[in-house]
Amino acid sequence: MPRGNCPVCDADIRLGKAGAVYGKRITCPECGATLEVIEEDPLELEEVEYGQRDDLY
Ligand SMILES: [Zn+2]
């Protein structure tokens, strides 16, 4: 299972295969930051700046 670290709070983040896709946005379960997958293997996440996020929710 792909796993990475939250760049904001350093929490361990595990994604299912469907979640570890380049450009996929997730929310950190620890700090609530919006993160984007910028690298699939190894999994790397980057914080999405507030205001840049799409209105997907
Ligand atoms: Zn976090």
Features:
Rubrerythrin, domain 2; 0% helix; 57 residues; two-stranded antiparallel sheet; binds zinc ion
How would you explain this protein's 3D organization?
With 57 residues, the protein is mainly beta. It has a single domain, classed as Rubrerythrin, domain 2 (Single Sheet). The protein is built from no helices and 5 strands. The strands form 2 sheets. It has a 3-stranded antiparallel beta sheet, with no helix packed on it. A hairpin with a 2-residue loop joins strand 4 and strand 5. It is globular and about 30 Å long. The structure holds zinc ion (ZN). Zinc ion binds next to loops.
Provide mean pLDDT, rounded: 88
CATH architecture: Single Sheet
Helical proportion, percent range = under 10%
Question: What pattern of helices and strands is seen along the backbone?
Answer: EEEEE
What would you call the structural class?
Answer: mainly beta
Low-pLDDT residue spans = none
Question: How far apart, in Å, are the first and last alpha carbons?
Answer: 25 Å
Mind telling me the C-alpha Rg?
10 Å
- From the spread of the alpha carbons, the general shape counts as globular
**Could you tell me the number of beta strands?**
5
